[in-house]
Every structure is written in structure tokens, then in C-alpha cells.
Amino acid sequence: PVKLEKSFFIELNKRISKFVWQRKKPRVKYKLLQDDRKKGGFGLPDFELYYDAAITNWLKDWVKLESRRLLVLEGFDLQLGWHTFMWDGKAKQHSYFQRHHVRNVLLNTWEKLKKTHYSKVPLWLSTLEADTYPNALD
Asked: At the top level of its lineage, which domain of life is listed (predicted)?
């Protein structure tokens, strides 16, 4: 995953709007353009939502701890387990964790999703592997 700022999506939406309306004043709100066709919208994709979905796919592999290749690649220097950083907020205490560009993007997106969907996340994930070193997995 690549880190994309909010300003990137704002600029992308502006350019798409200019293209759709041919540089004239928009006659419909942009959110209506992005709304589903079944709801009366025009079905224009929400690129920020697609971006978050792609990163969430990586997070799924991160949480499940099944892809040994991914865990070794991204967790080569971890002193604590993955879930420690996701649930307990240890990333602020261990600054080395956020220096890795992939982990930083994943953790920032996770924090954003956790704020809005925390009650929908299964509770068994929170303490599953909090203190296990990921490279020690068989």
C-alpha cells in the first residue's frame, strides 16, 4: 500500500467533476454522482473508499497471521506481536514500528477504521496474539 493523503482524493474529485461537467457549474452534488444507481445516483466510484478497501485487504492478512511470507517481510524487526500494535496502541511507544512505510500506512488506516467500526470488530481479535513475536511462528 502507498500512503495517499486526503488532499489527493480532493484533487481527484475536483478533476473528475471538471471533466463530467465540462468546466461548467455542477448541477448535481458530487455525493449524488457517487451514490448507487439503485438509490438514484449515477454510480461514480468513490476512490477513497476503494483505497481504504484495498488497505483493509492487507489488514485482513495482518490480523489473521496466516501469510508467513507477509509477516516475515513486514515484521522483520518487531519486538512485540502485530496485535499489540493494533489494539494496545504500542506503536507510539515503539517508534521503530512506524518507520516502516507499509506498516505506517496500514496502522493509520486501521486507526481510522477502528474509530468508526470498533463495535463491529470481533472481540476475540483484540487479545489473540498480543505478546507473540511474529517471526517465531511455525
From this structure: Eukaryota
